[in-house]
Design goal:
α6 (162-179) links the parallel β7 and β8 (182-186). The strands form 3 sheets. This protein has a 6-stranded mixed β-sheet with strand order 6-7-8-3-9-10. It is of the alpha/beta class and 254 residues long. The chain is built from 10 helices and 10 strands. The longest helix is centred in the C-terminal third of the chain and has 18 residues, at 162-179. The radius of gyration is 20 Å and the shape is globular. α3 packs parallel to α5 (132-143), α4 (103-116) packs across α5 (132-143) and α6 (162-179) runs parallel beside α7.
Length: 254
């Protein structure tokens, strides 16, 4: 991943498994949101390929690309709801765009999606009339409007108090359990990472590559590097006994 000549991350190689909650984690500026932009097709990789069930997303023709996008839903960090539309109109927008359902059927789907995220009765409200947590849930209802196979979340707990963030985590888990949705989450919130992630990928800003992939609890208890240990424990201390010898030698040579 690069911006012109500035390389952000290199040598990224991983697979997201069907039905799992996969977290992309790392410090500020490590490229988490940039990686998400690549995964949802907003930016092409400077080198390499992104495959969606075997199809090269970056090089796909327009019909193939549209078909892939139709199978995705995205919850952006700030929700990105249209301020001039009600919650119902926001959720209805992708349904109107990608389906031929009549207005009555669309209204029924919209009510169902808003009820799913606990916003029944708020259909006629505008985004500026509800709280930040409610806006996140409304944005989630819109992201899930077309029953996507894969949902992408960019820092879903950003700006939320701990209780509201925890409720959003519960909703993410419910979506996976109820619908088998594959979920990819960008996050630096440790409480959320340990609560929802099946596997987590760590982007190391110093080495400009991924340095860990696995169950976040295992990575915390058996960190492969000092940076992973510090991130997952929020500690400036190292854990020499649990970090592989080759990593300690590499750090000492720096």
């Amino acid at each position: 991943m690069a911006y012109r000549s500035l390389v952000i991350m290199r040598d990224l190689s991983f697979q997201v498994r069907r039905g799992e909650i996969f977290v992309i984690m790392g410090g500020s500026g490590s490229g988490k949101s940039t990686l998400l932009k690549h995964l949802i097709g907003l930016k092409k990789p400077a080198a390499g390929t992104i495959l969606f069930e075997g199809d090269d997303f970056g090089e796909a023709d327009a019909p193939t690309r549209k078909g892939i996008l139709r199978r995705m839903g995205v919850l952006y960090q700030n929700g990105a709801l249209w301020s001039g539309l009600t919650l119902a109109e926001n959720v209805a927008l992708p349904i109107e765009e990608y389906t031929s359902l009549p207005p009555e059927a669309i209204a029924e789907v919209v009510s169902l999606k808003l009820a799913l995220v606990g916003l029944r009765g708020f259909e006629s409200f505008y985004p500026n009339e509800i709280s930040g947590g409610m806006r996140k849930r409304a944005a989630l209802a819109r992201a899930a409007a077309l029953d996507p196979e894969v949902l992408f979340f960019d820092e879903p707990s950003s700006g939320l108090d701990p209780i509201t963030a925890s409720r959003l985590d519960d909703l993410i888990l419910q979506l996976r359990e109820s619908f088998g949705t594959t979920i990819v989450v960008v996050s630096h919130d440790l409480a959320s990472i340990f609560k929802i992630a099946d596997r987590a990928l760590f982007l190391d800003i110093k080495q400009k590559t991924m340095t860990a992939l696995g169950d976040p609890g295992d990575l915390r208890d058996h960190p492969p590097s000092e940076e992973v240990h510090r991130f997952l424990t929020r500690s400036s201390e190292t854990a020499p006994s649990s970090i592989p010898e080759q990593h300690r030698k590499t750090r000492s040579l720096r």
